[in-house]
Amino acid sequence: MKLHSDEQLYQKVRQADHEAFDQLFDRFWKRLFEYAFKMLQDREQAEDVVQEVFVQLWENAPKREIQHLSGYFFRAVKYQVANVIRNQKWHLDWNTVQLEDILVTDEPEVGHNVVLLKVVEERIEQLPPKCREVFYLSKKHGYTAKEIAANLNISPRTVEGHLQRALKSLKADLEHMYILVLIFLYL
């Protein structure tokens, strides 16, 4: 069986051949798991997604003709991940989210961070001017509240008020957009 192509094994699976199914499982499980885990960042969910893909393959094999099995598997995993993300009740614990980690720096991030960084940048630009200035000085440039207060000729308490208002505004905006960003990134 190890010498059979994926498509040949699939034809045997269509005839309810358990050994062929096990061979396909062994060939694809690790790569599909890694793909799902990369998107979900949750071991248990990734395992469930891959298991569901294989269950559907087995159940639907007699009535489905698949030409490119590898492509089918990865599309099926992507679809299942999208379902998990859509169906999951997302609740963000904003106390654990560090906006400093996702703010634009001098060197742009790669991958999905670029999208999130653009969204955060847009939301920061919508802050009131003084609030935005205080936020940038604190989060992007690393100035303390005292340093910002001295530079802008305002009290440290006013600086803290601007920072709290900025963070509250950003957290409210981003909490609503987070699910959409995740779905967009992984579809």
TrEMBL record:
- The protein's name is RNA polymerase subunit sigma-70
Q: Which taxonomic lineage does the organism of this UniProt entry have?
A: Bacteria, Pseudomonadati, Bacteroidota, Cytophagia, Cytophagales
Transcription regulation is among the record's keywords: yes
Q: Gene3D superfamilies, per this entry?
A: 1.10.1740.10, Winged helix-like DNA-binding domain superfamily/Winged helix DNA-binding domain
What is stated as this protein's family in its record? Answer: Belongs to the sigma-70 factor family. ECF subfamily.
Pfam families named among the record's database cross-references: Sigma70_r2, Sigma70_r4_2
Is Transcription among this UniProt entry's keywords? yes
**Which GO annotations describe the biological process of this protein?**
DNA-templated transcription initiation
Q: Which organism is it from?
A: Echinicola strongylocentroti
Per the database record, which ranges form the RNA polymerase sigma-70 region domain?
24-90
Q: Which UniProt keywords apply?
A: Sigma factor, Transcription, Transcription regulation
| MF term (GO), any | DNA binding
Q: Which CDD domains match?
A: Sigma70_r4
**Where's the RNA polymerase sigma factor 70 region 4 type domain?**
120-170
